[in-house]
Design a protein that fits this description.
Elements (H helix, E strand, L loop, with lengths): L1 H25 L9 E7 L2 E5 L15 E4 L2 E8 L6 E3 L6 E4 L3 E5 L5 E4 L5 E2 L5 E2 L5 E3 L10 E4 L4 E5 L7 E5 L2 E3 L7 E4 L2 E3 L8 E3 L8 E4 L1 E3 L5 H34 L3
Antiparallel strand pairs: 1-4, 2-3, 5-20, 6-19, 7-8, 7-11, 7-15, 9-10, 12-13, 13-14, 15-18, 16-17
Helix pairs in contact: 1-2
Amino acid sequence: MRALYTGASGMKGQQFRIDVTANNIANVNTTGFKRDRAEFQDLIYQNLRVPGATSATGTQFPTGLMVGLGTHPVATFKMFFQGPLVETQNPLDLAIEGDGFFQVLMPDGTIAYTRDGSFKIDGQGNVVTNEGFFLEPPLTVPANAVELVITPDGVVNVRLPGEPNLTQIGQIETVRFINPAGLQPIGRNLFQETDASGPPQLGQPGLEGHGFVRQGFLEQSNVQIVDEMIDLIIGQRAFETNSKSVQVSDQVLGIANELKR
């Protein structure tokens, strides 16, 4: 009976949707997190009669006779729309207002990308992530700096003791991707480049489509908890309905088994 397997595929699909929604809810307070959306496709169809076939009387059937065999998940689409910016007044907290990613140097020498701008300073004055990964290009804050000022275009300045003017010590560069949804999330608020994302497009904040850098702000998760709760309800009800189709199919088989009596 096809309905048993079709209903089972629907239950698996809705379980996957609930898993994706649960991950969104779990990261509602994760800095720079981007919401995932589960996407599905119908499975192949069993064609009992194709549209346009010729009948026994020589006429043409305007429609076909077919039955679908269920659904399956095909993608989790990461939605890179802007999350809300929250002021922290911490000079090392940075947010990108617009398109772009910060670059992070990984221990194996590769570059990862992040929207999480909650940077710190290590014992040598290097600007690093919460995991201790270096910001790329590297940025070192002098130990005697009394003020750190980062402009919206990414210019990093410090005020040194006894000097009235700011001294530039570096430039923050951001990257864009033609298809950011094609990036590979690797955890720790980091992404890696893939063939689907395209190569990184390096640039200066505020120019050529790159977003501005906002010092003293952090970008919050773009997850809307109300939307996720609605998705949970829809997923739960759809799971229940698919389970009903499995139960009904089982009951029909039971009725058929009783015919021998």
